[in-house]
């Protein structure tokens, strides 16, 4: 995988892991206020809306040497947009689950496999779209980012379930 692909996926993946730990350890509880509970459920909070883009931006600055010649401020801005895309891409899925009567953190009855696929692809789709826009990726490059993002999501989910950190795939 080239440095650009690593630069796109590594910060947002690490930010996602760190966010999960923040939620698990109940840190920054004052920001754990639902953004739109009736529409998205209670799990989509201001903490996530702020943490994911900010953490991805900071990690992108740390990895700013990966895209050759990109200044740190530009890496941070790209990271912020990538983190925001990760968050916002999950919203339609949450909205649809609420419309179908699923509780927060659950999948609607009768649609389990469809929502497993959507749960593992929505954020990767958002990140890959952001990368396409920010870096002018070709379709092939976009597909690599998307497929690698989905693969990372699936692999990390399996690992976290196996370690007992996450309760379901």
Throw out a few tags for this protein:
mainly alpha; single chain; 6 helices; 169 residues
- Helical proportion, percent range: over 70%
Order of helices and strands: HHHHHH
Helix count, DSSP H or I runs of 4 or more residues: 6
| Proportion in β-strands | under 5%
Low-confidence stretches: none
The main pleated sheet reads as:
none
How far is it from the N-terminal to the C-terminal residue, by CA? Answer: 26 Å
Q: How many structural domains in the coordinates?
A: 1
Q: Give the quaternary arrangement of the chains.
A: single chain
What structural category arises from helix and sheet content? mainly alpha
- The radius of gyration is 16 Å
What is the arithmetic mean of pLDDT?
A: 92
Shape: globular
What is the β-strand count? 0
Protein name: CDP-archaeol synthase
Transmembrane segments: 6-24, 45-66, 141-161
Keywords: Membrane, Transmembrane, Transmembrane helix
């Amino acid at each position: 995988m080239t440095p650009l692909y690593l630069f796109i996926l590594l910060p947002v993946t690490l930010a996602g892991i760190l966010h999960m730990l923040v939620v698990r350890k109940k840190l920054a509880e004052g920001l754990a206020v639902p953004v739109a509970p009736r529409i998205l459920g209670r799990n989509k909070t201001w903490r996530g809306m702020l943490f994911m883009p900010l953490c991805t931006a900071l990690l992108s600055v740390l990895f700013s040497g990966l895209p050759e010649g990109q200044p740190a401020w530009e890496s941070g801005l790209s990271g912020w947009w990538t983190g925001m895309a990760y968050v916002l891409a999950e919203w339609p899925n949450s909205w649809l689950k609420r419309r179908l009567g699923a509780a927060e953190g659950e999948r609607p009855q009768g649609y389990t496999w469809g929502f497993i696929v959507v749960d593992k692809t929505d954020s990767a789709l958002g990140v890959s779209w952001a990368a396409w826009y920010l870096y002018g990726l070709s379709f092939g490059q976009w597909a690599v980012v998307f497929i690698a993002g989905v693969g990372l999501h699936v692999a990390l989910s399996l690992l976290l379930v196996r370690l007992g950190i996450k309760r379901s795939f």
